[in-house]
Amino acid sequence: MNGFVNVLKPVGATASDVVVCVRHALKEKSGHLGTLDPGASGVLPVAVGKATRLFDFLTDKVKYYRAFFTFGKTTDTLDSYGAVTGKGTVPAEEELIAACEKLTGAIWQTPPAYSALSVGGVKAYKLARSGVDVQLKQRKVTVFELKLLRRQCEDTFVFDVKCSAGTYIRSVARDIASLCGTVAYMSGLIRLQSGCFTIETAYTLDEVRSLGEKCLLDVTYPLSDVESCVLPDNLYDDLDFGRKIACPFEQGYRKIYCRGQLFGLAKNDNGILKLQYYLKNLQEN
Asked: Fewer beta carbons below 10 Å: N end or C end of the chain?
């Protein structure tokens, strides 16, 4: 059994909790495609069986979020679960809109100290919890869209964020506030979409438990935007045994088919077709 389950993660559950649920329901090894904090809810795609081979290819996809930022107060974790470490004013909507414009595009972002990034082989959040002053390096991320939607209440505003993988939404809250001369924290987060997996088609954990393999999406589901390349029938054995084949395309990845069968995802490696992700027989669940 190979494929994907689009899970609607509830607030309070960890990404590992979701994986365990899918694994028990489908009786197959599973792994999530990019983590989601326990305090957040929304789309968490889970790869099942040998579909986990596509992990590296799929974790780099664009993410969409509905974020709730509370201004005039911040915490050590930059979310509602941490201890208050600072207070300030609540900015005007005009200031927030201007800050959003400055944070749109390719930007340098400092991840939160309370994150799963590794520092000397130790998770940053573990060091932060033990009292260590964690200083993480800035890294380049892309914010494709950062839009103020509405004012939720006196100090809380709702934003839509479309961003690259690796973007920390808690850091976005901090950086918007900083540009406005104040402080903030992320008080809520919903992931609306991860790659092609959307919240409208996601299954709750209870639905996963009751429906089991009926929740399973085909292994090619997240590859719909990848072009196909059909090779001549006489190259079947060359593909099967990993022999060198001249690559018929220049750039990017292609779904490689031969004799009606999907072999995997390939790219051009100095003129040679390189099967980067081997997917043969994975559609036979």
From this structure: C
